[in-house]
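Q: What residues go here?
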């Protein structure tokens, strides 16, 4: 009996030691976005000791392409139009992007995935993420086939979850939710990714081409403190389909960044949309647009941030 108790004591001690060494779990794409989970990384941040983060919104016309650089990590969100693919690759290389650690597709429209093929063929990609929206286009199929050929696993991003992209840096995935909870629509825009970048005390909301109905669903789903951000990437190239009054109230940004451009045969006053601009102005938000100001670059140490433009 004494020998049995001695063996049990040893076993329990080993189990206790193993559990104690595991520590707190790292936030991943499978972590529920509760107030506690979303704040885990931020709470552990050493105030005033973070390396500089650089966020570039590229001037790619009526399209989206963003680059986040921090702690030696490169995160690319969308890749502009097909005709801009090779140019985007050159611009990424000029910014010392030798490898993309995280490549994110917000939705499968060509003004967001157009340059993906050129990027995948030119720069090593470690991880690819998308919300898995069904869409029938040759470009989308070509991109998926290229991912398979290069043995790059595709990872599902949907809310509520947290994706850690670098030390002390996370993307909180707010939308879309799992497939049974998504908005039923033939338009991929309505279920495009909406994500909040969290780095120290800095917050930036990335909205892709989400619509007002997406915004209302997000507002109903999450507490207000999980929506607020100093910087808002304006959805859908400033179209009036998005950036509702209620959304601006919820996010309460100081700065709005928009990616848009003129299109042949389209009224030159369509982008930026005047009604959207008025809502932004009425909220006393500083507005930056790529068409007039070129690339928009934000740098932050996790506390303060600075906005610069190429023009």
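A:
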């Amino acid at each position: 009996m004494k020998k049995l108790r001695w063996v049990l004591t040893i076993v329990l001690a080993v189990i206790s030691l193993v559990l104690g060494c595991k520590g707190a779990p790292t936030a991943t794409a499978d972590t529920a976005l509760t107030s506690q989970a979303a704040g885990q990384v931020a709470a552990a941040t050493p105030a005033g000791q973070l390396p500089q983060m650089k966020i570039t919104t590229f001037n790619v016309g009526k399209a989206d392409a963003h680059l986040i650089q921090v702690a030696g990590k490169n995160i690319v969100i969308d890749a502009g139009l097909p005709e801009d693919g090779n140019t985007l690759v050159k611009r990424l290389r000029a910014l010392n992007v030798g490898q993309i650690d995280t490549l994110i597709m917000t939705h499968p429209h060509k003004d967001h995935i157009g340059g993906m093929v050129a990027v995948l063929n030119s720069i090593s990609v470690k991880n690819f993420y998308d919300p898995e929206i069904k869409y029938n286009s040759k470009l989308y199929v070509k991109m998926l086939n290229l991912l398979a050929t290069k043995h790059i696993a595709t990872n599902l991003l949907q809310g509520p979850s947290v994706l850690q992209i670098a030390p002390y840096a996370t993307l909180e995935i707010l939308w879309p939710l799992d497939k049974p909870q998504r908005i039923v629509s033939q338009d991929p825009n309505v279920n495009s990714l909406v994500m909040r970048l969290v780095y120290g005390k800095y917050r930036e909301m990335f909205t892709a081409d989400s619509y007002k109905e997406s915004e209302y669903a997000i507002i109903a789903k999450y507490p207000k403190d999980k929506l607020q951000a100093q910087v808002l990437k304006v959805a859908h190239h400033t179209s009036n389909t998005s950036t509702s009054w209620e959304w601006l109230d919820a996010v309460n940004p100081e700065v709005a960044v928009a990616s848009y451009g003129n299109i042949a045969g389209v009224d030159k006053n369509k982008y930026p949309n005047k009604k959207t601009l008025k809502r932004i102005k009425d909220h006393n938000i500083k507005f930056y647009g790529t068409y007039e100001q070129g690339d928009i670059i934000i740098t932050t140490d996790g506390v303060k941030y600075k906005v610069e433009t190429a023009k």
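A: Context that may help when evaluating the design: Confidence is low (pLDDT under 50) at residues 1-42. The two ends are 82 Å apart (CA to CA).
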